[in-house]
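## retry 2 of 3
previous attempt timed out at serialization; input unchanged, resubmitting
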Amino acid sequence: GRGAARVLGEAGTLGGSVAWGFRAGRAGLAWEAQRFPGAKRMLARFRKHNVHVAASGFPGVIKTSPLFEELEDRGWLLTREDGSAQVFDGIAATSGQPYGLLDLTYRDIYNLWVERHRQLVEDGLDAPACDAQIAIPDGVTARNGETGPALRSMYPLLVRRALFDAVAGLKVPPEGVVPSTDLFPAAQRLPWQVGPQVDNTWEGLRHTLRTALSIGASGLPVQVHGIGTASRGTADMTPELYLRWLTAGVFSANFSFQGVNGLLPWDFGDETLAHVKTWMQWRYRLVPYVLGAIEDAARTGLPVQRSMALSFPNDPHAHEWDLQYLLGPALLVAPITAPGKQVRVYLPKGEAWWDLNTGHRYEGGTTWTIDCELGQFPVFGREGHMLCLGPAAQHTGEFNSARILDEVWMFGMPVHNPVVMRNKIRVMQMQGSSYIKGLEGLRISPSEGLEVKRRGAEVRISRAR
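## retry succeeded, writing output
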């Protein structure tokens, strides 16, 4: 049980070494005393500033620790054929030291792992994380008889499900975030997938996008995009690449800044920083839509970022555009993944699409070359849908849960209920007009050729006369 602290949310990601581990000689977890002498107080200060902290742990017990021999005697570790504990070669999570693995197939040990992490959550930890990427040999056996091949599939699931139980088990309904890079059967039930480690290059951006769309097609709803990779060199990360990477993240399920010099917004000059601030405002305004898409994904199994092949199965030409995607049901995103301001965009046939930058309407089944300066990004609204935006904010602590919406953008005549976080907005058609309940008090930006009339709690959208 070793871990490293990082920050999710307002402050991006902070690198760090071991943050907590087993108490000396005891099967309990404790914060690393020298670096975190007052963990509760430290986490409370983060929370005061609306920052959510994740800690990455590992269910290993160092071979040279007093606890290893005790747990081996109890039969709490995965074993070899002769009944002794399997000793694994050291990895980064154990600082290179050989270790044994807790046998999480055994109910008592699983419950202990959950309870110890629940204590960390009670201390103020928001999201326990674990990447249990372990090569378990065929000869290794668990207490109930499972061996290597089965354990290689089961173990990452058990680790991640236990952490979810720790953070979400006391909530009704159970909910929480457990980020991880592991893929395993039923991973879609724990939807927060961490993106790949890539070079800080244009190819790295393309790799990140392809990975997100591939795992989405496998049923995992959410990938967290890193804006670059902290562990890779920063020499190739130009201001242009940084902004294109960030805007792809803004129009995605989730993203995280990297807390290292050379990958922070203020490392690229004042002009770039001003663009970053603009895009962060866009992100906050998109939060109700994105969270609504996440809720929708949890119900339907469709990912938040949907590949063209998944979204438009009856348009074979769309399948060739492997870096475009739908963000939720209403927005088509065509990320700029090469230097320069031009991008080729394919708009699927059978529908019309509205350019969010210009308000121009395009018929589907067409390919366009779009010019986008650094303050623009190619995003298109799907006709018949609405985009519900929240108010501008500096951090999530400013959100008013009773009024999460501020403005509605129409893409032609609305015929679909919008995807919005926990809001009930209903669209009905009568005599050529759309009647919408749930938009009380919101600013409404209609498409050209439409007019908006309010009647009490109802909004009527009709063709302009």
